[in-house]
Amino acid sequence: KFDQHDIPYDVLWLDIEHTDGKKYFTWHPSHFANPGTLLDALEASKRHLVTIVDPHIKKCAGYDVYNKIKNHDYFTKTKDGGLYDGWCWPGTSSYPDFCNPAVRGLWATFFKMDYYPHNRVDLWTWNDMNEPSVFNGPEVTMPRDNLHKCSSNSYGVEHRDVHNVYGFYHHMAGSLQFVLRTEVGSPKRASVQQCRSARVRHFSSLNSPTAGSHRLGAIWTGDNMAKLAMHVAGQIVRSSVLLALDWVAFAHITGSPFEAEALTWEHLAISVPMLVPTPQHPRLHYRLDRLMRQYAKALLPILQHKRVEAEMADQQKTGIHVVKRNGDHQEVKFDSITKRIQALCEGLDSQFVDPVPITQKVVEGFYNGISTSEIDSLAAETCAYMSQRHPDFSILAARIAVSNLHKNTVDSFSVTARALRDYKDKQGRPAALLSDEVCDFVLANAEKLDAAVVYKRDFDYDYFGFKTLEKSYLLRCDDKIVERPQHMIMRVACGIHAGDVDKAIETYDLMSRRLFTHATPTLFNAGTPKPQMSSCFLLTMKDDSIDGIYDTLKQCALISKCAGGIGVAISNVRAKGSYIRGTNGHSNGLVPMLRNFNETARYVDQGGGKRKGSFAMYLEPWHADVFDFLELRKNHGKEEQRARDLFYGLWTPDLFMQRVKDNADWTLFCPNQAYQAETGKGLMDLYGEEFEKLYLQLEKDGKGAKTVKAQSLWSRIMEAQMETGTPYMLYKDHANRKSNQKNLGTIHCSNLCTEIIEYTSPDEVAVCNLASIALSQFAPKDGGEYDFQELYRVTKVATLNLNKVIDRNYYPVEAAKRSNMRHRPVGLGVQGLADAFMIMRLPFESEPAKKLNEDIFETIYFAACEASCELAEKEGPYESYEGSPASKGQLQFDLWNVTPKSGRWDWAALKAKIAQHGLRNSLLVAPMPTASTAQILGNNESFEPYTQNLYVRRTLSGEFVTVNRHLLRDLIKQKLWTEEMRIQLIANNGSVLQLDIPSEMKELYKTVWEIKQRIVLDMAADRGAYIDQSQSLNIHMTDATTAKLSSMHFHGWQLGLKTGMYYLRTKAAADAIKFTVDVDKVKKAAVTTSGYAAAESAEKQAIEKLKAGENKYECVGCSA
Questions:
Q1: 175 phi and psi angles, rounded to 5 deg
Q2: Angle formed by the axes of helices 847-875 and 788-808, nearest 10°
Q3: Where does this protein have coiled-coil stretches (predicted)?
Q4: CATH code at 33?
């Protein structure tokens, strides 16, 4: 038709639509049924054909190219080591890691005839979108912390370091085809030598040039950052290296250019050898289209006139079509998209949230054949990226995403339950995702349960909370999500209360109103055929022998397989060089053994790839290998002396702290020597006076392996903590003296996150089931009183649920079941304490906040004890109740020598009731980290202050900067939220202390870095009197020194804390104000390209610094 209409051309460029289903190295079976004939015709007229081969490979099980790359494990990885998926022209796509030479070699083979039919010598190649482009990310490329493999070493190079060369390597891989491709039996077959002798130069083009690109072929400027300033500089640079060919797609200009800029861009486009007007391109700015056409027509009347005629005719016939959920094609109507977004904006701040500009941004990502689900995903991500302007954007993003999910799932819990129970895998084998018992219960009560589900509550989640659910928590069939968030909550409720429909509905109602949540393993597994709902497992090394060590390792593997976080006490394993009687040899000590545990943690991930395996190893500081133990997580040193994937904790006796304080000597022992001959009990098995008595006797008897200054070891501990954040610091004597399980024996360790303190033995693996209460939900929005009565009611329901989980749980090892049935411990935690303070306008350091902190935990402990006592009245006390402190009338605050002061609860009456009926649970309260579930519910983590007022939230689509919603609403209410304020907040790393805002707001929105850690410790001790397990207490220090850290540790020890420190977080004092942005420059940026670049550069640097200071060891193992 080009010839028929007299349209001049030299080359035909075939975009992705020429392929079969948008799979590269294929031809469309009907549109290009015989490519060879087309190539012959073009060659006869001395014209050429160019086909596109982009780096995004459609994720498709039947696609040979995808399967081959995946089988070789050659795709780019996420920061967690998983396969990275992004969204580009084919839809969900994976990206070959072209930084790896082996990948480039494999890629070149795909150009051979057996992969790519008709790939003859005269077929040219177009390497496009190799920035690489990812449409569903904030930067339109893959996340900066994606991992590449640049050599034979393991993945470890971040994308931020190779972004500019990724496209170059993609192009290099494509250029290898000219050496490798051969067309056996083809009349157009030609060898490399024949091509050279005939002076045939193969042609290929690329979209992401860097140094050396001119050696491989032509380049073009259609980059995702196609700005005028960049293009001009690029033209100059490319001219200086005598680049043979340069071309411009002038419709790609991005941003909001002035008319003069658009005209200048088009001048440049027409002045280079190749002009590519692409009006169908999704990044075309339609407002510039008429202007650009007029100018182009004046200079190129024939080509441009015909192009416009063809374009308009094509738009009249087809336009841009979307694929609906039922498979129908429909012409896109931009007004319909705006109306859909408008319908979801109810109740949002219309001064900030305007559907029209949102729609304009969304349509920039359109392509012909985009699905309606992809449009919703793109719209949601667009809104999420704008959430730093106003929190309502995050709400709108979630509403769009939830609405999309609702359109793709059924609105019946009972129908969903049946589908989960009847699920068959891809081979047609039964693979039920819901147990028969739970499904039968649901179907028997279908009408009542379906009526109880309130789907509109799905719209209460913010975007990042919903994406967290979508990524890991909602059940899938054949990789398709079939659960809605409300379905998941009802599944959990039914999984816990199958047989009692009223209790199930009560639990559902409280959880769906986000008043409390069960822990991540419960959300994952409740109601499933193997409902492993426990979060925490604690083990003691069974025995200091090969059998004992490997039996314990096997237990760890079985538990980790089922998504349990693990704490292991290893102080009974003999030290390096100790005599082994059975073999007449000597021990290699802890380090080689721990490396075995390290590899097991890496190999046995949790929940089938949902989470990494996580083990915390606990050692007492008298152990002779303690110095080696402290080196295990350090970045430097011999690899065989490191085990960096484990976590480490010190189980510290009072005697050691006293020796450090007195600058006395400290003797190290091998546990093989450190025991009482009469009883067989070692130092590990004793605490308090008994421990001290044995320790002194062993010193006197000369049983020590080595004597050091206590402060020398203390300094090494400080050094390790400042470098790695660990070892955790827990106090053995406090943990045992204040435990309601101390009648069972000495407690040897804590768990992965330091909040669980339970008895373990060789035949008992301690277990804990967790839930957390959303404290922010009980804070008054109108200046009233905190709702302690509702907190009390919700706590009782959560306690009853956790007790029920013990009976309905699947236990990965028998020793765990034995322990849990005997002692029945549970762990209630919290999230959103800092949010409650902000809602009530109480600065974290204020006296009212301290009082509220104490009153909240008194209420939780009272309600939990009362609920457990009521259970004991019905079912009897737990098996090992007799002899416990509670059986003697001592509750947790008695063990702290504290008297409740609020007068709100009748402790005397409750104690009398406990004396009569006992308790059903040995332990009740354990504030844990809530990394995942706090994000789901939209709260700050646990009881901690806000670590930042700015967060970088990550999804599979990319990174999004969000602002503390309380601060943002406050600034908006006081009319202080401007673009200048946003830039300054980012520049100050989220700190408000340097901003021009009222001093009351500065106090209210202090971050943890600006709050005295002594106050954090004091508040931990205040609530500690009502915490019968322990608490995951992080310490944050600016400009940490050994003196400051030592002082902090001693303060926590003297307060009587069980957990003195979970992680140590440190940063330099200058970090918060290191990056500054000149606001005047930001203002001028409205009229200068360089101003934009300067502001963007400073902002990006600040955000990178913000990310660098994030918690790298965020725990999801205990997240409740």
A1: -70, -25
A2: 40
A3: none
A4: 3.20.20.80
Helix (H) and strand (E) counts for the chain? 42, 34
Give residue 1117's identity as a one-letter amino acid code: G
Supply the pLDDT for residue 229: 55
Q: Are 473 and 1116 in contact (CB under 8 A)?
A: no
What is the number of other CB atoms lying within 10 angstroms of the CB of residue 562? 23
Count Cβ neighbours within 10 Å for each residue of 688-713 and write b for 16 or more, e otherwise: beebbebbeebeeeeebbeebebbeb
Residues 416 and 392 in one domain: no
> Are residues 348 and 393 part of one domain?
yes
Whether residue 346 is predicted with pLDDT greater than 50 in this model: the reply is: yes
Q: What is the dihedral of CA 272, 273, 274, 277, to 10 degrees?
A: 40
Residues 6+ apart with CB under 8 A from 629: 590, 591, 619, 623, 648, 727
Q: Are residues 725 and 616 in the same domain?
A: yes
How far is residue 155 from each of residues 73, 131, 160, 222, measured CA to CA in Å?
11, 20, 14, 30
Whether 522 contacts 492, CB under 8 Å: yes
What's the number of domains the chain is made of? Answer: 4
Instruction: Tell me, yes or no, whether 819 lies in a domain.
Output: no
Asked whether the beta carbons of 667 and 707 are under 8 A apart, the reply is yes
Q: Which residues form the catalytic set?
A: 751, 753, 755
Residue 149: inside a domain, yes or no?
A: yes
233 vs 603: CA distance, rounded Å: 49
- Indicate if 404 and 417 belong to the same structural domain: no
- The whole-angstrom separation of Cα 526 and Cα 492 is 5
In a domain, 943, yes or no: no
Domain boundary among 711, 746, 762: 762
Do both 335 and 480 map to the same domain? no
Cβ(503)–Cβ(1085) under 8 Å? no
Residue 831 covered by a domain = no
CATH code where residue 746 lies: 3.20.70.20
- Nearest 5°: the CA angle 663, 665, 666 is 115
Same domain, 549 and 506: no
Residue 650 — left, alpha, or beta (φ > 0 → left; ψ -120 to 50 → alpha)? beta
Same domain, 509 and 629: no
Q: What phi, psi does 878 have (nearest 5°)?
A: -65, 155
Q: Which domain holds residue 178?
A: 2-186+194-224
952: enclosing H helix or E strand: strand 950-955
Pick from 367, 388, 408: which residue ends a domain? 408
**Tokens standing for residue 1085:** 């940026």
Ramachandran bin of 386, using left for φ above 0, alpha for ψ from -120 to 50, beta for the remaining angles: alpha
Give SS3 for 795.
helix
Q: Which amino acid is at 412?
A: S
CB 475 within 8 A of CB 484: no
pLDDT in tens, 485-515: 999 999 999 999 999 999 999 999 999 999 9
Predicted confidence at residue 212, as pLDDT, reads 62
CA proximity to 180, closest of 171, 172, 166, 191: 191
Are residue 400 and residue 540 in the same domain, yes or no?
no
273 exposure class (CB count in 10 Å sphere: 0-12, 13-18, 19+): exposed
Q: Which one is predicted more confidently, 127 or 920?
A: 920
pLDDT at 162: 86
- Beta strand residue intervals within 296-384, DSSP E: 321-323, 329-331, 370-371
Q: How far is CA 755 from CA 28, 411, 611, 890, 1081, in A?
A: 59, 39, 20, 21, 49
Tell me the per-residue pLDDT of 395-450, one tens digit each, with 9 for 90 and over.
Answer: 999 999 999 999 999 999 999 999 999 999 888 899 999 999 999 999 999 999 99
606 DSSP β-pair partners: 611
Please state the rounded mean pLDDT for residues 965-970.
Answer: 92
Task: Quickly list DSSP for 238-298.
Answer: HHHTT-S-EEE-GGG--S---HHHHHHHHHHHHHSSEE---TTSTT--HHHHHHHHHHHHH
